[in-house]
Amino acid sequence: MKRVSVDIGGTFTDCFVIWGDRYVQSKALTTKHNLALGFNEALDYACREVGTSREQMLAEVDSVRYATTLGTNALIERRGPRIGLITTAGFKSTVPLARGRGYGEGLSMEEQQDIPNARRPEPIVPIEMIRIVRERIDYKGEVLIELDEDDLRRQIRDLVDAGAEALVVAFTNSVVNPVHELRVQDIFVEDYPEHMLGAVPLLLSHQVAGRKGEYVRSMSTIMDAFLHKVMYFGLSSLERNLRASGYVKPMLVVHNSGGMAQLNSTDALQTVHSGPVSGIAAAEHLAKCAKLGNVVATDMGGTSYDIGLVVDGGVKFYDFQPTIERWLVSVPMVHLATLGSGGGSIAQHNRMYNTVQCGPTSAGSDPGPACYDRGGMKPTVTDADLLLGYLDPANYANGYIKLNPRRARQVIEDQLCDPMDLDLIEAAKLIKRTVDLDMANGVATELRTFGYEPSEFTLLTYGGNGPLHACGIARGLGIGRILAPPFASVFSACGAGNLSQLHIHEMSTFTVLFDSMTKQLFTDFAKFNAMVEELERRGREDLLRQGMPVEKIGYRLELDMRYGNQRVQTTVVTDMTRLETLADVVKLINQFHTSYGDRFGEGSQAAEAGVRINTIRVCSFVELDAVDFSDIHPGQKRVPAPAPVGSRKCHFVDHDGAIETAVYDAAALEHGVVIDGPAVITTSHTTYLVEPGWRFEAAAQGAAWFTRIDA
Amino acid sequence: MNVMPGIATLSVGERKLLQDFVDEHQLFYGPDPAIMRNHKLEPRTAAEDAAMKKHDDPHLLNQVRGRVISALSESFRMVEQMGAAPGAKWGDLVTAIFSASGDLSEISPAGIVTFAGVCQYPIKFVNKYWTHDPTVGVRHGDGFIHNDSRYGGIHNTDQSMMMPVFHEGELVCWVSSTIHEGENGAIEPGGMPAKAESRFDEGLKMSPFRIVEDFQVKRDILTFLQNSVRDPKLQFEDLKVKLHACLRLMDRVRAVIAEFGKDALVAYLRRNLEDTEAEVHRRIAELPDGTVRFNTWIDSTLREPALLKVACAARVKGDRMTMDFRGTSPQLSNRSVNAVMGSTKVCFLTGVLQNIWPDLPHNQGVLAAFDFESDANSLLDANNDAPCAMSLLPMFRTITVATVSFPKFIYGLPDGAKARATVTLAAQYNQPATFVYGGLTQHMEVTGNFCADINGNGQGARENRDGEHGVSPLFGFMCDTGEYELAEEELPMVRLIAQHLATDRVGWGKYRGGLGYEQMVTARGTSMWGFMTGQSGSWFCSAPGLFGGYSCPAYPIAKVKDANVFDWFKEKGNAARFPYDIVELMNERPIESGRYVTADAGMTFEMVQEGEIYMICQGAGGGYGDVLERDPAAVMKDLSEDLISHESARDIYHVVYDRRTLIVDAAGTRAARDAERAARKARGKPYADFVRDWVTEAPAEDLPYFGSWGDTGRIIAGSGKTRQVMDAGAIQPVFMPDPRELRIAALEARVAELEG
After folding, report:
1. Residue A535 lies in a domain
2. Rounded-to-integer distance, Cα B665 and Cα B732, Å
3. I need a surface site. Which of A573, A688, B197, B339 has the fewest CB within 10 A?
4. Together in a domain, A14 and A107
5. Of A100, A127, A132, which is closest to B472 when you measure between CB atoms?
6. Which pLDDT tens digit goes with each residue over A394-403?
7. In terms of DSSP bridges, do strands A687-690 and B370-373 run parallel, antiparallel, or are they unpaired?
8. Which domain holds residue A95?
9. Domain ends where: A201, A231, A261?
10. pLDDT tens for residues B492-504?
11. Same domain, yes or no, for A559 and A615?
C-alpha cells in the first residue's frame, strides 16, 4: 500500500506517507497564499525519508487525501463571495434572528451568560441581501401557495443588481417537496445563462441538507455557498499541483462526516472541521485495529481542548446540528466537543471563592503566555507548567520559542500568590490541578451524556499540550490507561490515510413505528423501503461516478428514532436494509430501547408514548486498505531504559517539595522501554509528563503508553 | 357557644398546649408563610458547621464545585434531549442541587434560574411537613412532584421533580429537575389560562407529594395526573424524563461523596451560598447610597383594559439593598395576573443575574443578600386564593425593575468596579409574546401548549451599541425560538409570517433597542383548534428606554376572521397581492370576505377555523440615550435594512440625507438637530410648572386604575362609582366584574334606550 495523506492546518501542513511497510511523517509551515508550496515541502521531506522523488511517489501512490481547515479559516476571516438569499415570504428574518440563541453559538458558557454583551456574529448574508418570494409548501409537501415566478424573477434581478456573487434558495419544507426550489434553478438557468452572468453559483437548500429545520438548512446552504469559491480554488490548485507532479488519480477530500470523496463530489460545508474529525477517525481506526475498546480522543492545543468519542461496536456519534464557527448548521458531523482550556488559558483569582479559575479566556499565541516574553501580562497554564519544571525554557516547541521563567514568576506572584496568600509553587500547582480537573470534568460530561463511564475508556492524547496534562486529566477521570498514539504529531493526517470512501444521504420522515394512541405497529414497508432505496441510489451514484466498483459498495442504514414528541434523536445503526415484517419493526424498536436505556438509564424508555423515525440515513461506502496498528499494545517486550539526557527539579500536584526528575529524549526510547514516573520525556513537538504513580512504556510504531500504577 | 380567650391572654404554657394541639390536628397543609415569605438562607445546621470546619480549603471545595457543575450539565442535557414539552426542547428547563435544608446552591449552567429558585420552597415544605409524618416520610429512592405556585413556583404549568439524596441514612442534599410542561388540565388548554378566575380554574394543583418510591413511578398516581390533563402522553413522558435526570444527578452526587467525602459536599453546598451572598454585599457596598424609583404599569388583566401599577423604590444603604414594592396594584382575585411574593423575589433575582451581574453564580446566595418590602394582597404579593396562571405579567416587570434601577446606581462607578460586571442596557421587551394553542392535531392527538416564540424578546439598547433583535428572552440565556418546519410537522399550524422584523417597531435612542418580530399564523388540517395569548402592552409601552431612550411601541393583536386564506390563495392573482406585513394586511384588507379585528393583545382562548389569521408581534427593547445623538450612518443602515421608515429618520432622528442613495448631508443634519434642540427648549418648562400642570390628585375618574397614586400608603382600585381607596396596610382583594356581563348590561341599556 502506498498513499499520501495531508492535513492542512492554520499553522502547519502535516503529511503522513504510507510507503509499503514504511510510515513517514513530515511537517511544513502552511503557505496560505499557495497551499501547494507547503504541501510540496512536506511531501519532499517525506520523499527524502523513503529515498524517492516527488514525481515517483505521486505516480505510485493509490491516492492522495486531504483534510483541511481552509473552510474554518475562511469563515473566521470572512473571505467569501457576496451572497444573496431567496427565501419563502414570511421568513425574511429567520436567518438574521438565528433562533434567538445565535448570539451565543460557538462561545463559552461565560460569554453566553453575559447577555447584556450579546452580539450576533457579523452576518454572512446581510439583511439587505435577503429577498422573499411568494410560495409555500406545507409540512407534508402539499403546495399551499404556488411559486410566483414573476415575483421570483424580480427578486433575482434585484439581488444580481445588488452585487450578489452567489445565490442561495431556501424555501420552507423544500426537503419534502423541492418543486419550487427546482423551478428556481430552471428559471435562473433560463434567464441567466452562464455566458451572460459568468459563474454565479445557485445553491438549493434541499440539495445541501436533507433535514427539516428551515434556519439550520438555510445556514448550511449559505455557508456552502460562502465557502465554495475558496475551497474550490484552494483545493483545485492543489489538484493542479498534483497533476503537474504526475499524479493522475482523483484527489480525495476528507469530510466532517468521517468519510471522504473526490473533490467534484464534495460540498464545501463537508470539509469544515475535517482536520479534527480526521483525528477522531484515526482514533477509531486505531481502536479497531488494536482492539482498544472504548477510546476518548483528546487534542489539547494552545487555546482549546477537543474531545471525540469512539466506542466499541461501531456506534456512531453525530452532531446533526453542529456549530460551525458561530452558526448552527444542519449536516451530520462526527461529534466533536471543544472546551476552552489549553496551554494559553489564563489563570485568574476568583475573589468570591478565593481560588483560581482557568479560562475560558486565553492568551492565545499572541501575545501568548507571559513566559513567551511577547507582552503577555497574565498568568497561563503554560507559565505554571514552566515553573513546575516540566518545560525546558531553551527547547520549547522544538526550540522555536525561548521561555522566560522570570516573567511567569512575576505574573503568578502578583496576580495569584498575593491575593490567595500562596507561595509560587503552590499557586502553579493549583493552576495545573484546576485546568486538569476542568478538562476531566468536561470529558466526563461528554461521555456520561452519551451514557458511558470514563473509567471504561482509554484516554488518547495528542496535540501540543496533551501529553503534558494527560496524567492529571486521566486521574481526574478515574482512567488508568493513556495512549499517546503513533504519529501523534500528524495524527489527523494519519486519520485521513485510513478512511474509507463514504457518502451520507439522509431524508426527513414522519414514520410512526408504534402509534400509542391507536396501538398500531408500522406496516407500510413499501414506503419505508422506497426511501431507503432512494438514499442507496444516491450514494451508489456518488461512488460509481468516482470509479468505485459496484460490488465493493456497502451500505449502512442508520435511523434517528425517538419516543413520542421528544427532541432527542438516538441513532440506531441497524444491520437490516429493508423492513419486511412486523418482527423487523419490533426488532428496531427493541434495538432503540436498548440504545436509549444505555444512554439515559434503564427504565427511562417510553415506548408507551409512541416510537417514531425522524430521519433515515444511508451511509454508502467502499472500504479501502488501511494501516495495521494491531501491534501497538504495551508489554510485548522489555528493553532497558537508556540513560536520561538530564534531570530537573519538578513539582507535582499532591506531592510536597521538589522531586529530582529524570529527563529522557523520546527518540532514544525503543519499543519496550519502561520508565516509572516521575519523568519528563521530550519529543520534537511535545513533552510527555509521567507523573508519580504512572508508568511510561514505549510500544511499536512510536506509540507511548501511560499506565497508572498507584491505584 | 364557648369562645376561647384571645391568644394574647394565654400563658406561655397554654400557648404551647394550643400550638401542640393545632399541630397534631392540622386540617390542611397549605402553603406555609414561614417558608414562602423567607428568601434568606436557612441557618447553618450543626452538620454544615462541622463540615465547614473540617473542609475550609477553598481550592478543595472548588474541585467539588467542578464535579457538581459537570453533573448538572449532564443532567440538563438529558432533560433537553429527552423532554417532550416544547419548553424542554427549546431551553425552558433546569436541573439543580439544594442543601439538605432546601437552599438552592447550584443550577445547571444553562438552566432557567427562576425555575430552580422557586423550587427551594416545596423542598422546604417537604422537609418541614412530610419528613416526620408517619404517613409520608422522606426516604432514599423517593421522588416528590410539585407544580402549585402557591407552594413555590412561577405558575402551575411548570412541574418539578425533587429527590432527596441520603448518605448512610443522613439527608445530605436535594436534587431537582423542572420543565415548563405546558398543558395541565386548566380551564384553557396550554397551561397558562388567562381566563382563570380562581385557582380552581388553573388545572393541576400539585402540592409537593411523593410520586416515586424506591426509584419507581407510582403508576396509580401517574394515571391520576394523566387523567387530569389534556395531553396524557406528555404527562407520562416528561415525568420519566425528570425522574431519570434526577436519578443521574443523584448518582453523580454519590460519586462526589465517594471521592471527597460527605462533609466536603455539605461544606461546598453551604460555602457556595455564603460566599455568594458575601460577594453580593460587597458589590452593593460599591453602589452609592440612595433611592431609585421606578414605576411601571401593566395595561391589561388579559380580560379587560386596566392600569395595574408595579411600584418599586430601590434603596441602597451600605451593603444592604432593599426593593420596596409597596404601592403596587392590589391583587385581582378573579383574574390570572397575580403573583405570590416568593415567586416575585425569584423573578427579581433573574433580572439581577441576567442583566446586571451575569458573572455571579446562579444560586440563592444572591437573593439572600436583598431585602424586600411589599403590601400583602397586592399584585406581586397575592394571597393563596388568587389565581396566578399568568403571573408572568407582573413578574416579568420585576426583571425590568432590576434592569432599569441598577444602571442609575452603577452609572458613576469606575470601570474596574466589580458592581460594573457588564454593560448597562435598557429594558428588554418583557411580554410573553407567543401563541398558546390547544386542540386536535393533524395526527389526531389532543394537545395544548405554547410556541417557542416566547424566547425571542427584543433586547434593550446598550450603553455602547444597539440592542439585539429578538434574542434569548429576559428570563434566560441561550433559549431557542426553534424551527417552524418542525413545529408544523407536529401541529396543525401554518406560519404565513414566521419571523419578520417589521418597519418602525423600534425603541428609539442614541442606540436603538433590538426589534421584535411579527408573527402571522393560521390553522390547517384540524377539526378543533384554538389560540390564546398572554401579552399585555397594547396601550402602555412595557419596555422603557434608559437615559433618554424611548420605550418600545405598543402592540395589539390583529385577526382576519370568517375567511379561509388557503381557499383565497387558490384564486388566481390573490397570492400576488397578499401583504406579508400586519399593518398592510389590516389596512388594505385584501381578503374581501374577511372580518378584520384589532384588539388588546391579551386574548383568552378562542376557537379558530381553518385559514383564519391571527397576528401578534414580539416587542422591541427600549432605546438608550438621546435620539439626536444617534450616528447618522446607523440611521442609514437601519433604513437599508427596512427597520425604520424615511419618516422616522426625518422626524425622530432628524437626519438629512438623499432618499435614493442614503448619503447623509452632514451639515444639514447638524442644522436639523440644532433646530430640534432649540425647539425642545422652547417646548420645555420649569419643573415646578410641569408639576403644576401635569400632576393631579387622583387618576381620571373613568380610568380603571389600580395601585398608589403618589402616596404609596393609599391604594386605589377601579374607576367611577366602584372605585375603592384602601390603606396600603389593609388591602382588600379586588374582584373584577365579568366583562361579558358588563357588555350585556350595556347592550340591554342600549336596547332599552332604542325601545324608548
Report:
1. yes
2. 60
3. A573
4. no
5. A100
6. 988 777 789 9
7. unpaired
8. 79-231
9. A231
10. 999 999 999 999 9
11. yes
